[in-house]
Design goal:
The structure holds two protein chains of two kinds.
Chain A (H helix, E strand, L loop, with lengths): L8 H6 L3 H14 L12 E7 L11 H7 L3 E6 L5 E7 L11 H18 L3 E7 L3 E5 L5 H13 L10 H8 L5 E7 L7 H11 L2 E9 L1 H5 L5 E6 L5 E5 H25 L3 E6 L5 H13 L1
Parallel strand pairs in A: 3-4, 3-6, 6-7, 7-10
Antiparallel strand pairs in A: 1-2, 4-5, 8-9
Helix pairs in contact in A: 2-4, 4-5
Chain B lengths: L4 E2 L12 H12 L2 E5 L3 H37 L1 E3 L12 E8 L9 H14 L6 E7 L3 E8 L4 H7 L9 H13 L6 E8 L19 E6 L8 E7 L7 E8 L5 E10 L2 E10 L4 E7 L6 E9 L10 E8 L3 E6 L13 H7 L13 E6 L1 H10 L6 E4 L9 H10 L3 E5 L6 H7 L6 E8 L10 E4 L24 E7 L3 E7 L4 E8 L2 E6 L16 H12 L4 H8 L1 E3 L4 E4 L8 E5 L5 E5 L5 E4 L5 E7 L4 E8 L12 H15 L3 H4 L7 E2 L1 H19 L5
Parallel strand pairs in B: 4-5, 4-7, 7-8, 16-17, 16-18, 18-19, 19-25, 26-32
Antiparallel strand pairs in B: 1-3, 3-33, 5-6, 9-10, 10-13, 11-12, 11-14, 14-15, 20-22, 21-23, 23-24, 24-25, 27-30, 28-29, 28-31, 31-32
Helix pairs in contact in B: 2-14, 7-8
The chains are: A alpha/beta, B alpha/beta.
Chain lengths: 293, 695
């Protein structure tokens, strides 16, 4: 199942049509979920599907059974019942890796948004960079999705990750209880991201954190002496990467563990993603979270 | 503050290699790959410390390498610290050695006064904290004052006067260098030369071995072409009738048409001569001296000239006419016509004026005596005779042998001519203890050698043949001998001349205090033609002088000729040991001098003139003449440029630097070994730092 969900990084880089990509990813994902219980419910009939063990017998269409002698379960389209705030990190640190973490994260955001609209959820988008901007408020219309795709396609990385009052003001607008999806590498100076998670918790947002890491960051396989340049600040540090690799990996693991601990403490779902991994796990995690809401 | 100096200062140019590690450092820095990374937050926390350490270590490594190279270069430059140097950089203290020429040529005109004025003006340039020393160059270079404040030198300069000898500036420079080397080297050294730069005083400048960096300042009082006439090389033969000679030298660049010269004997005018002397040439003038009585005499040749240097306008000589030697000549064939007498040639040779009424004083006082009166004369008046000459005697009194032996043993001289008529057996038997050889038989020239025998070899260094030492002074091979005695020299004898077939011609034997000479030929022309040759007279004079034990004239002549300003000594013999004498010098009172244990009397002649030495009772025992050294008469001087060129060549040929002439015990505190040790430590440190892995 995962084979056709995997996105070739080269393909990802070559295709500019984010909506097409998102649709492809989600359709592929959903087709594999035909016997999955993870499908939303709506008040309007949407379609039939074969009965599987565990389905509520109340949803079996007995008329159809009478005509065709087959058990089908009716599916319904629910009206908008959940707002989802997608917070996408566009800082300079996301522009790293091949494919870049930002490209991966952007596709993830698009796929999630597509899936959400199909589920009658209302995805909104907040871009997090030097300036925290609530690009789009949560909406569930189809044209809203197009606007969201356009915004994502036009988003660019750069600058510092600023987690400050400007962001908190945006977070304060998340007044309706809903779901917050944070897509970021979580690399920021100080305790900014932990503060963000705290703020979301205060705003009654069920939060799911996708920490996107590039394989280069995780493996840190750079033999020899290098002049390391920070992608956000431009700061330079001469380093013998080979000699420092083990220490770096230890520090990265410590950081990630601490993020995970913090998420667990705040009952936040946390998923660490490498950009060379398929999106299946990400979408599954979302659906699990969605059902819990 | 100590001033660091370097033995090989040029090596400091090697400090340029310090650029190399800096370049390497920069080049290696640029080769590091730039890697854009998402975040450095995982590096910073600890790596800021490690980076600081790494940077520190990096700079330490660079500094270590730079320091290592600098230390190596410094070690090769061989730095040293001058001993206790305290110096004002604005005006370095100086130690100056004045080399002052006091040679006689500085008495020309006002050279000395001008030079001393220049010395005083130069001293005024020195500060109170400078030090100055004085080396005076006369006959010898002497340190007149060691390094001291300049004020101490001024009184000494007031007392200085020009000398009378010749100087060697190279010797003065060496003395100055030695003086500088013996002093601490923290003062800037310099040598100031004050001289007329007379050429002869500068001839050995190249031997001075001057350091290249030594300041040598020169002041000259001389002129390149100063005019001067000089009277030199006065020779007065003590033999009567011989001509005296003197040289008149023109050191000027112009001819002198007429130079008048006066001859003075014993201070009295004798004669005046005039001569034309061309520029740069020498003219010899001669004068036959009148007969002089035995004793000390003075001769002086003096020109009337207003030239540069007055001291050399006279040449002086003191000489002694010795007392006549008393000679007793035995005549066995007296005749009314003296030329028929057997002793005619001998007597004529020894005293040419014998019998003349107006005869001049002769070296020998000859008395002819008959054989039978010889013994009585020697017995009655043994002390009056110094020499006995025996021509061929056919008969001699029986006691003559013992009397002659006693005469010779007491210091008398005996000359025997072995000619015709000698009874060989009687001579050999009766005079066995006197004769230098045993007579055997008469030999004639073989028929095949009709030319006769000749003198083949003789003792050229012997006093007898002293007259023949000079070239063209007579050929002893010319006389022809037709007969002779075959003889065998006794063991204690010495053959002084031989015939061309090796047979002895002249044999000598010392008996007691006297000498016996046997001449293997006749005293007349029967057996030879020697009396007709011009070599006969000087040879016979030599024989008579030697046999009589006289060599005084030769000694006296040598010891009576001094050079002004040059220390010498008069040998008066052991008999004069520790005795006091009165010395009269020109223009001053008599002074008392005492001979040393060997009878020698050291003397330093001052101005040219006559010096007399008398016993305390006033009896004159020696007259001496001091003349200016001939080299001083040539007043031609070098220019300052020529002098400096010579000094520069001396410095380049010597190739010595300061380390070669400054006393190392007083100056050099070299620490190149310490620097090399530091270099080794730095090398170890560099190895440790360079091989450290940076995190």
């Amino acid at each position: 199942m995962s084979s056709h969900l995997s996105i070739d990084p080269k393909l990802l880089a070559a295709v500019d049509d984010l909506s097409l990509l998102a649709r492809t990813v989600v359709e592929g994902f959903l087709s594999g979920l035909h016997r999955s219980p993870f499908l939303g419910y709506s008040t309007e009939f949407a379609s039939y599907r074969p009965y599987v063990q565990g389905d509520n017998l109340r949803h079996v269409d007995w008329k159809v059974w009478g005509r065709s002698d087959q058990l089908n379960v009716k599916q319904f389209e629910d009206s908008t019942n959940l707002t989802v705030q997608i917070i996408l990190d566009t800082s300079g640190s996301m522009d790293f890796g091949n494919p870049s973490k930002f490209a991966y994260a952007r596709l993830l955001a698009a796929a999630l948004a597509f899936l959400m609209v199909r589920q009658h959820d209302a995805p909104g988008l907040t871009l997090l960079g030097e300036h925290a901007v609530q690009a789009l408020p949560p909406r569930s219309q189809q044209h809203h999705l197009d606007d969201l795709f356009q915004l994502l396609a036009g988003a660019r990385t750069g600058g510092h990750t600023v987690l400050g009052p400007e962001l908190w003001k945006v977070v304060e607008t998340f007044t309706r209880r809903g779901l917050a999806v944070v897509i970021s590498d979580l690399f920021s100076p100080g305790e900014g991201f932990f503060e963000l998670l705290r703020q979301l918790h205060v705003q009654r947002q069920e939060t799911i954190v996708f920490q996107v890491l590039a394989p280069e960051e995780v493996d840190f396989d750079f033999p020899g002496n290098h002049l390391m340049v920070d992608s956000e600040t431009g700061r330079e540090i001469p380093l013998h990467a080979g000699a420092f690799r083990r220490e770096y990996q230890r520090r990265l693991a410590t950081f990630c563990d601490r993020v995970q601990e913090e998420c667990v403490r705040r009952e936040i779902d946390y998923l660490r993603i490498r950009t060379d991994e398929p999106l299946e796990g990400v979408l599954t995690a979302y659906l699990e979270q969605r059902m819990a809401v | 503050m100590s001033r660091l100096s370097f033995t090989n200062g040029a090596m400091l140019a090697g400090l340029a290699v310090l650029v190399i590690p800096i370049l390497i450092h920069l080049l290696l820095r640029r080769t590091r790959t730039r890697l854009r990374f998402s975040t450095l937050q995982f590096f910073i926390q600890q790596d800021e410390q490690s980076e600081r350490r790494r940077k520190l270590r990096h700079w330490l490594l660079l500094a270590t390498r730079l320091l290592l190279l600098a230390v190596l270069v410094l070690a090769f430059a061989r730095p040293y610290l001058p001993n206790g140097a305290i110096e004002d950089p604005a005006r370095p203290r100086r130690q100056v050695v004045l080399v002052l020429d006091r040679s006689a040529s500085l008495q020309t005109g006002n050279r000395w006064a001008r030079m001393m004025e220049a010395v005083r003006q130069s001293l005024a340039e020195l500060g109170m904290d400078d030090r100055v020393a004085l080396v005076v160059c006369a006959a010898n270079a002497e340190v007149a004052m060691s390094l001291a404040p300049p004020a101490k030198l001024r009184p000494l300069l007031d007392k200085l006067e020009p000398g009378f000898g010749t100087s060697d500036l190279a010797e003065g420079l060496r003395a100055a260098l030695k003086l500088l080397a013996s002093e601490p080297a923290h003062l800037k050294p310099a040598i100031w030369v004050f001289s007329d730069l007379q050429r002869n005083a500068c001839q050995r400048l190249r031997t001075a071995s001057l350091p290249r960096d030594l300041e040598v300042k020169t002041w000259s009082a001389g002129e390149p072409d100063a005019a001067n006439f000089a009277v030199q090389d006065l020779v007065v033969p003590v033999e009567s009738g011989a001509a005296s000679q003197v040289s008149l030298v023109n050191f000027s660049a112009q001819d002198a048409k007429e130079v008048k010269m006066d001859w003075l004997i014993d201070g009295e005018f004798i004669s005046r001569q005039s001569a034309a002397v061309r520029a740069g040439t020498t003219t010899n003038l001669g004068l036959s001296l009148p007969a002089l009585s035995p004793g000390w005499h003075t001769a002086e040749a003096r020109i009337q000239s207003q030239d540069g240097l007055a001291l050399d306008d006279s040449a002086r000589l003191a000489f002694q006419i010795p007392d006549a030697i008393s000679v007793l000549c035995v005549e066995s064939r007296p005749s009314k016509r003296v030329f028929e007498e057997e002793s005619f040639f001998v007597v004529s040779a020894l005293n040419p004026g014998q019998g003349d009424s107006n005869r001049i004083s002769a070296r020998f006082k000859i008395e002819k005596v008959l054989p039978e009166r010889l013994t009585s004369r020697l017995r009655d008046q043994p002390k009056e005779q110094q020499l006995v000459i025996l021509p061929s005697l056919r008969q001699m009194p029986s006691e003559a042998g013992s009397i002659l032996e006693g005469f010779v043993k007491n210091g008398g001289g005996l000359v025997i001519f072995a000619g015709e008529g000698i009874q060989a057996g009687r001579y050999s038997l009766g005079w066995r203890d006197l004769l230098p050889a045993v007579l055997e038989r008469v030999e004639d020239v073989p028929l095949r050698e009709q030319a006769g025998w000749h003198v083949r070899e003789y003792a050229r260094d012997h006093l007898i043949f002293a007259a023949f030492r000079q070239p063209n002074s007579g050929d002893l091979a010319l006389p022809v001998f037709s007969r002779r005695w075959a003889m065998t020299p006794v063991e204690s004898s010495q053959v002084l001349a031989r015939f061309d077939d090796g047979a002895p011609l002249l044999v000598s034997r010392t008996v007691g205090a006297g000498r016996v000479l046997l001449v293997n030929t006749s005293a007349d022309t029967r057996w030879n033609d020697w009396p007709k040759r011009k070599t006969f007279v000087p040879w016979l004079h030599g024989v008579a002088n030697f046999a009589a034990g006289e060599a005084f004239a030769e000694k006296g002549r040598d010891n009576s000729r001094f050079l002004a300003g040059m220390a010498t000594e008069i040998d008066l013999g052991r008999a004069a040991a520790r005795k006091p004498f009165l010395l009269q010098t020109p223009g001053s009172a008599q002074t008392m001098v005492v001979a040393d244990a060997e009878g020698r009397l050291p003397i330093l002649p001052g101005p040219p003139g006559f010096y007399s030495l008398s016993e305390t009772n006033g009896r004159l025992i020696r007259l001496c003449a001091a003349n200016l050294p001939s080299a001083e008469s040539d007043l031609a001087a070098w220019t300052l440029q020529e002098f400096q060129q010579q000094l520069a060549q001396a410095a380049s040929e010597s190739g010595t630097g300061p380390a070669a002439w400054v006393n190392p015990e007083l100056r050099d505190r070299e620490f190149w070994r310490m620097i090399l040790t530091a270099g080794l430590v730095l090398l170890c440190l560099e190895i440790i730092l360079a091989n450290r892995t940076f995190a």
